[in-house]
Specification:
Blueprint (H helix, E strand, L loop, with lengths): L4 H5 L7 H12 L14 E12 L2 E9 L9 E7 L6 E7 L10 E9 L2 E11 L5 E10 L5 E3 L17 E8 L2 E9 L5 E8 L6 E5 L10 E10 L2 E9 L15 E5 L2 E2 L4 E2 L6 E2 L6 E8 L5 E7 L13 E2 L1 E2 L3 E6 L2 E6 L7 E16 L4 E7 L5 E8 L7 E6 L4 E5 L14 E5 L6 E7 L2 E6 L4 E6 L8 E17 L4
Parallel strand pairs: 1-21
Antiparallel strand pairs: 1-2, 2-3, 3-4, 5-6, 6-7, 7-8, 9-10, 10-11, 11-12, 13-14, 14-15, 15-18, 16-17, 19-20, 20-22, 20-23, 23-24, 25-34, 26-31, 26-34, 27-28, 27-34, 28-29, 29-30, 31-32, 32-33
The structure holds beta-D-fructofuranose.
Length: about 475
């Protein structure tokens, strides 16, 4: 289907039921549907939004265009969970139905206040000349999931000197009031993050440009998120058009982070910031949203998908998924990312494979977790989702003497995004390697050395390719966990 602009902005209800039924059938027959990751029922999913804890449950929303696998007019879809792994779909929560959000309910955050959850989001509006207007909006959700949009914008326009590429508000409690961090662009096309403060969540005062680097941040910063771990500040953000000499990346747009000693309100700065780093070493992570959860952890979810890239599932009427919930920890100036401990409850059968330099296994499904301890090996190669002969899979090769890892998806099923490269090569610690791998039909999440790094890859293999091989220059110990499906 050719998606014209009028198609993309047509009201959901104006699509005839025949089209919708056909879409549902197409998705139902799609290969590559995920077993235990959040995916759209139909159409497109992008950024996680409003990740929070409220009403005794985890609350998570995502950017949704349920009508097709394209970036059409967006809503917030709502999910709740008791355990961060089984998610209950609650339907569309915020739809584009006011003059402040007519062309899309864009990304934002959520924060519990008394017995309600405040949803803060960007209303995207296109005027008659198709010029963009961005409004920062609020809505209150009660314990019955009833939502009431606040009539007037929290922030009605970008500050002077800034364009309407102004979106993705994150509200956090700060000192005696609240802080809002938002992605922005100057009218000279420079990417920035801005902050605002408020005491009552209604009146917001511009605090100005958030200082976290002296380098140019491309033409736009999307989805900035400020969280605190072990008394350190962590800023996650997506600098679009970032010069690769500042920090190398291969994806169309990167998701990056910096760590600072703290956030100082007065100077509006992340103090003593580190250099920029890629949050994920793989192919598809973007728009990660993190929050300081009331249990003391920093929890995060990533969009596994990228803007402006076509994926093979487009032909089946759906696109993209969310990552597992990850716990972020800053220790000794370093960021660690681990699957939330709740993820262990997905395990069904666990098998310790006999230690060997050459392991071959037929998992029979592509829904499992592997823990690999490479102990005495300096070099090795892991092939996932392969044929019986070990060919045509996702290849992970490592050499700890040189501290290198390469992930290659060029031989897996239907290729895509090849103009951005089919391999990712990056540095790893020069010490014995441990890996925790999650394989889910068309997604692999690789946690390296207890969360020192993460590499994520969508892959679209034949469903018959359920074998994996592990070849190392000394025996490795491997535990295989079959995982339960949650979808
Ligand atoms: C990031 C993003 C956000 C925006 C949303 C719209 O992927 O472009 O900046 O709010 O997606 O769906």
């Amino acid at each position: 289907k050719d998606w014209t602009t009028p198609d993309r902005y047509k009201k959901y209800n104006d699509w005839d039921s025949e089209y919708i039924e056909e879409l549902v059938t197409t998705v139902t027959h799609s290969p590559w549907r995920l077993g235990y990751h959040i995916q759209p029922k139909t159409g497109l999913l992008n950024d996680p939004n409003g990740f929070s804890f409220f009403n005794g449950k985890w609350q998570l929303f995502y950017q949704a265009y349920p009508i097709g696998p394209v970036h059409g007019v967006k809503s917030w879809a709502h999910l709740t969970s008791d355990n961060l792994i089984d998610w209950q779909y609650e339907g569309l929560a915020l739809e584009p139905d006011t003059s402040f959000d007519s062309h899309g309910v864009y990304s934002g955050s959520a924060i519990p206040v008394d017995d309600k959850l405040l949803l803060a989001y960007t209303g995207n509006v296109r005027d008659d000349d198709w010029q963009r207007h961005s409004y920062q909006l609020g809505a209150w959700m009660d314990k019955d999931n009833q939502i009431k949009k606040i009539d007037e914008p929290l922030i009605a326009h970008p500050p002077i000197g800034f364009s309407h590429e102004f979106r993705d508000p994150q509200i956090i409690p700060f000192k005696d009031g609240y802080l809002l961090v938002i992605g922005a662009q100057t009218d000279k096309n420079e990417g920035k993050a801005l902050t605002y403060t408020s005491n009552d969540l209604q009146h917001w005062t511009l605090n100005g440009e958030l200082n976290f680097t002296d380098k140019p941040m491309g033409f736009m910063v999307e989805c900035p998120n400020l969280v605190f771990s072990n008394d350190r500040a962590l800023l996650l953000f997506c600098p679009q058009g970032l010069d690769k000499s500042i920090c190398h990346y291969d994806n169309i747009y990167p998701n990056m982070y910096i760590i600072g000693d703290n956030y100082d309100l007065e100077s509006n700065s992340i103090t003593n910031p580190t250099e920029l780093k890629n949050l994920d070493e793989g192919f598809d992570v973007y728009a990660t949203q993190a929050f300081n959860s009331p249990d003391g952890r920093v929890l995060a979810v990533s969009w596994i998908g990228l803007p402006e890239i076509n994926y093979p599932t487009d032909d089946y009427g759906w696109a993209h998924c969310l990552s597992l919930v990850k716990e972020l920890i800053i220790k000794d100036d370093k960021l660690y990312q681990l699957p939330a401990k709740e993820t262990e409850a997905l395990r069904l059968n666990s098998i310790t494979l006999p230690e060997s330099q050459s392991i071959q296994y037929d998992a029979k499904t592509n829904g499992y977790e592997l823990q690999i301890d490479c102990q005495n090996s300096n070099k090795g190669q892991i092939n996932l989702m392969t044929q019986e002969n070990g060919e045509n899979g996702l290849t992970i090769s490592f050499d700890t003497t040189y501290g290198k890892m390469i992930i290659d998806r060029s031989h897996v099923g239907d290729g895509f995004a090849s103009e951005y490269g089919e391999k990712r090569e990056f540095s790893i610690s020069q010490k014995p390697l441990t890996l925790q791998l999650f394989v889910d039909e068309s997604l692999v999440e690789i946690f390296i050395n207890d969360g020192e790094q993460v590499a994520t890859a969508r892959v679209f293999p034949s469903s018959k390719n359920t074998h994996f091989t592990i070849n190392t220059d000394a025996p490795s110990s491997v535990t295989y966990h079959e995982l339960r499906q949650t979808n």
